[in-house]
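Technical annex B. To support the medicinal chemistry partners, we prepared a structural model of the target in complex with adenosine-5'-diphosphate, based solely on the information shown next.
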Amino acid sequence: MAGGGQLARMTQQAAIALGVSLRVLAAASNDSAARVVADVRVGDDRAADDLQAFAKGCDVVTFDHEHVPGDHIRAVEASGVPCRPGADALRHAQDKMVMRERLSALGAPCPAFARVPASDPEGFLAEFGRQHGWPLVLKATRGGYDGKGVWVISSPDEERDLLTRGVDLMVEQHVTFRRELAALVARSPYGQGAAYPIVETVQEGGICVEVISPAPGLDGDLAAEAQRLALGVAEKLGVTGLLAVELFETAEGGLLVNELAMRPHNSGHWTIEGARTSQFEQHLRAVLDLPLGSTEPTAPFTVMANVLGGDDPDVYARYFHVMAHDPGVKVHFYGKDVRPGRKIGHVTALGGDLAETRERARHAADYLRWGKR
Ligand code: ADP
């Protein structure tokens, strides 16, 4: 797995049970996954030579992020090591404009969008705003994550600096949504597909803070439509491995695609305890072209809450309260240095009562961050 973050770290947990030897290409020997994987190569996964040296001898290469350049992936494939997902599929998770154009061509529902031209961007935005209404959403087509690279603007010149900085930008209609959902599916090279229950994701300041599975009160037909949509996109784009489709449930009750990720996804961390097969195991099964595992839930509700860094880096001191307070809550830490606002771990609660299960996850996550409630 190229990339040494928490997704690779949690993939290692699944690899252990499967008896699969995971090699990781990490940027540094103290990266989240590098701390727990025996076979670590330290290098730059965006550098062709480092990627090629790392891939040599692997049965298959996969990724814990979207940032490996397509040409380098193609070079690895040309050397005889399959990459899953492949470069042609991964493009759609690397470039939001490429994704929007392709999904629209496939008839998948998307917000109105356009590329922002280099000449007279303000005039273009003014016209787009006249057609679709204000505010608008500006997005860097590449390189954004956790809301970095997304700007909501109320007038054409609100981000004038950005418009002149030479960043490739697209603009989208600002969607009024009821809530955000995510559809997580896996697809193997053989062509088998598997879909997890549709979840609700709750974001604060562009960062996902909570995931509820299944999305409470979601209409059964709409849930099935979201699963079909994600399986269809995985098939049409030739995705191998996991595909997460981030969705908006609009005020009118329809679905719009926000974006795609082709790797284990934050919206799927709940599956470690909340599904028969965790997303990390499923990703390994899919990229190794093994039969996929059951996505059956293990509880009526599973709630995952991300733990963000607070002011006090001594998180471990707070384990005592959290574990004594609720022996059913599961704590996951990523072995990352604590910085305010940084995702450093997550907690999961399972239960039959939604409000209570949310409260248990919330309490544990807040306490781990702040040491109080
Ligand atoms: P990132 O790649 O940083 O995750 P996203 O494209 O997922 O960026 O956008 C981050 C968040 O911004 C979304 O989760 C959503 O809350 C909000 N957002 C993105 N696009 C739109 C839109 N067209 N209308 C309204 N809100 C949006």
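Notes passed to the chemistry partners:
The pocket of adenosine-5'-diphosphate is lined by residues 111, 137, 139, 144-150, 172, 174-175, 180, 203, 206, 246, 258-259 (CB under 6 Å).
The domain at 112-173 is CATH 3.30.1490.20 (Dna Ligase; domain 1).
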